[in-house]
Amino acid sequence: MPAFLTLGAAYEQRPRLSGGAYHPVLRRIEDFLDERLPRAVKERERRAALVLPIDDGVARIVEKLKKCGLTSPYLKPFVVARINPIRFSTSTEFDFDDVLRRMEANAAKFNVDRIRQEDVVRAGGGPAEESE
Fold this sequence. Notes:
- By secondary structure, the protein is an all-alpha fold.
- It has one domain.
- It contains six helices and no strands.
- Helix 1 (2-13) crosses helix 2 and helix 1 packs across helix 3 (37-67).
- The longest helix is centred in the middle third of the chain and has 31 residues, at 37-67.
- It is globular.
């Protein structure tokens, strides 16, 4: 899968990247390149470099959510899913750079005040807290 090639290049630049959170997006926008290997590797490295600023924004959002009292091991995938501009699209053709630019913009304007614990739970992020 071409998405793993870009994630591999991203892991080389940031070994602690949560690549699994980005895989659902990347697998829809990535394709094999019609380039020779040296050029293809450079293109994968360029694409990986576009993922890293998004990861920085997602990490900032996750920290804000934790400060608001939200706790879940799935906060990062939850945020990535929320900033994914193609999550409801039925199209099969996407421009890689455009999608990642839009993700970065969505991360910049993400409003943590609108997120509730129930939203994270509904997305598969753990059991709801029991009320007494």
